[in-house]
Amino acid sequence: MSAITAGHLLVRCLVEQGVEVAFGVPGESFLDVLDGFHACRDRIRFVACRQEGGAAFMAEAQGKLTGRPGVCIVTRGPGATNAAIGVHTAFQDSTPLVLLVGDVGGDVRDREAFQEIDFAAMFGPSCKGLAKRVERVDEADRIPEAVQRAFATAMNGRPGPVVLVLPEDMLVRRTEALPGARVEAVKPAIGRDDVLAVEALLRAATRPLVIAGGGWSPAGAAALQRFAEAWHLPVGNAFRFQDAFDNHHPLYAGDIGIGVNPRLAQRVRDSDLVIAIGARLGEMTTGGYTLLEAPRPKQTLIHIHPGADELNRVYHADRAINASSESAAAALAALAPDGPVAWADWADAANADYRAHVAAAGPGAAGTLPRPGATEPIDMPTIIGIAQRLLPPDAVVTNGAGNFASWIHRYFRFRGIAAGGKTQLAPTAGAMGYGVPAGIAANLLTGRVAFTIAGDGDFLMNGQELATAVGHGAKSIILVLDNGMYGTIRMHQERNYPGRVSGTGLSNPDFCALARAYGYAAETVERTADFERALADALARDRGTLIAIALSPQILTTGPTLDDLRQEGLRRQSVRSAEGG
Fold it and tell me: How confident is the model over 177-218, as pLDDT tens digits?
């Protein structure tokens, strides 16, 4: 092989790792890498995005969908700081991601050169939640080694993001190094002693509950389903991993996250055995560390996780098992009870509670109008029910952060990963602006229908990526709920400072006109009865569509109205005043 530039070698290394699409925003610090993408354009595609935060979110969605690192490349300084939101999301969501950063040349390093940042300090482990590893590559010959290490680190243990820093003068040097071989994740296998321990604890239980979360392959999710069926175990999905277990299954208990069904929350508290598989058991899944008390839960806890460092870090488990979800589920699925289990009624009641929670939408959940008790002109449970009925089973549903997502969380029933792949993309990190780029990436990478629900504040965080979708032949369907406020913050504001509105009101553009300017089709839906036609039209189009819905500010949550929240805040204020007096 003749000598090539380091930038070209980097692209060939990505190709060797199976990367077919990389996302980013071009920068002068990595021009030779861009030239490498051109040279390898028949094997890898560079998707130029409109802002690095959107690009990083697309790469994070890529990691969730594929189980291998999503790839994002940005320039130094402003590019890297913009991309940091995607890195943080990948860290908290345990998503494999590799961020490539074009950096200042070695000849001017440490002088605070133009846009220079100490990336080890910015992204490193000392930041407690940005990247698993940060590595600067100063020698062209070592690019293959660095790329292999980055991919291995991103996938192994608890998956997460890795940052490779690439000085621009290094990228133009010539090298005869060859791309390294493709690396695979090392999946820790569950031991026989651990399997027997789980079996013994199960046999001693009377009210067991499984919590599934984290990354799952279709084979692993299918094994989890077999395990649940053999032992008639109720299964709840961790926060924003609602597709880990089929929501239509008679053993599904619901999602355990923000706005958790109160009956399910109590069931977690009442359980005498919790088997957490793949879930990190973070703040949202544990109700602020109250459903499972930290550090020692009242329930017997079996915690199975691929990252050894995650085990016993927050919760002291009765049995901490370092194993991949797929390995654990496959081994546990081979177990069988001696006969009918004692908790069959407990499991059936958990599913009945879930179905009742969803059925609060009434007949509208099937798209029938009108729904008893419906709030017109827009009734969100009915809207979600229509989407459930019209979207294909393998549609990828995406959202960012905000109260608007609660309509999906409560009323949409995800098909499990076992049915053929991941169908939910949502940030457990609570990052606004995730849904739009994630939906675009999902359609571009898989060709499947991508349905995004966004709030007005959330949409404008990364709405510019509609230009990316149009420019690269991707399309998505985006439902924008416009209530003229940052709804989640307003909810907390009314509870704590009732009537004292500050900073949460929004002045919004004409979302349809904006979408059309980017090249999307768009229409406004003013009545629930018009949504079915609008969605059917969007599904039939060969380009993306934005559907805007003006939602009453009163309809702030799936439960209390804005006035209810304010009254609750006033009652709290009155109690505090009385106690203070």
Answer: 999 999 999 999 999 999 999 999 999 999 999 999 999 999
d(CA 512, CA 24): 27
* C-alpha torsion angle, residues 371, 377, 382, 387 (rounded to 10): 150
Model pLDDT for residues 58-70, shown as the tens digit of each residue: 999 999 999 999 9
- The candidate with the shortest Cα–Cα distance to 240, out of 418, 112, 97, 430, is 430
Question: If 0-12 CB within 10 Å is exposed, 13-18 middle and 19+ buried, where does residue 522 land?
Answer: buried
Residue 238 in this model has a pLDDT that exceeds 70: yes
Indicate whether 126 pLDDT > 90: no
pLDDT at 573: 86
* Distance from the Cα of residue 428 to its chain's centroid: 6
Q: Where are the alpha helices (DSSP H) in 188-274?
A: 192-204, 218-231, 262-270
DSSP conformation letters of 120-166: HHHHSGGGSSS-SEEEE---GGGHHHHHHHHHHHHHSSS--EEEEEE
Residue 370 pLDDT grade (very low, low, confident, very high; cuts 50, 70, 90): very low
**pLDDT one-digit tens code per residue, 475-488:** 999 999 999 988 88
Label residue 280 exposed, middle or buried (CB < 10 Å: 0-12, 13-18, 19+): buried
B/e letters for 448-480, b = 16+ CB within 10 Å, e = fewer, are bbbbbbbbbbbbbbbbbbbbbbbebebbbbbbb
H helices present in 312-360, as ranges: 325-333, 344-359
Indicate the Cα dihedral angle 95, 327, 332, 286, nearest 10°.
-20
What CATH code is assigned to 192-354?
A: 3.40.50.1220
H helices of 497-547, in order, are: 511-518, 531-540
Chain mean position to CA 442: 12
CB under 8 Å to 531, separation ≥6 — which residues? Answer: 382, 383, 386, 525, 547, 549
Average pLDDT over the chain, rounded to an integer: 94
CA dihedral sign, ordered 108, 112, 113, 119: positive
The first and second tokens of residue 541, run together, are 């189009």
- Phi-psi bin for 502: left (phi > 0), alpha (psi -120 to 50), beta? beta
Residues 503-508: contacts with CB within 8 Å, 24+ apart?
Answer: 506/456, 506/457, 508/456, 508/460, 508/482, 508/484
User: What are the CA-CA distances from residue 4 to residues 22, 140, 345 (Å)?
Assistant: 21, 10, 67
Beta bridge partners of 103: 167
Comma-separated ranges of CATH 3.40.50.970 domains in the chain: 4-175, 360-568
pLDDT of residue 360: 66
58: helix, strand or coil: helix
Q: Outline which parts of the chain fall under CATH 3.40.50.1220.
A: 192-354
Residues 549, 478: Cα–Cα separation, whole Å? 11
Examine the pLDDT at 366 and tell me if it is beyond 50. no
Q: How far apart are CA 406 and CA 454, in angstroms?
A: 11
When the candidates are 3.40.50.970, 3.90.79.10, 3.40.630.10, 2.40.30.200, the CATH number that belongs to 4-175 is: 3.40.50.970
CATH class of 360-568: alpha beta
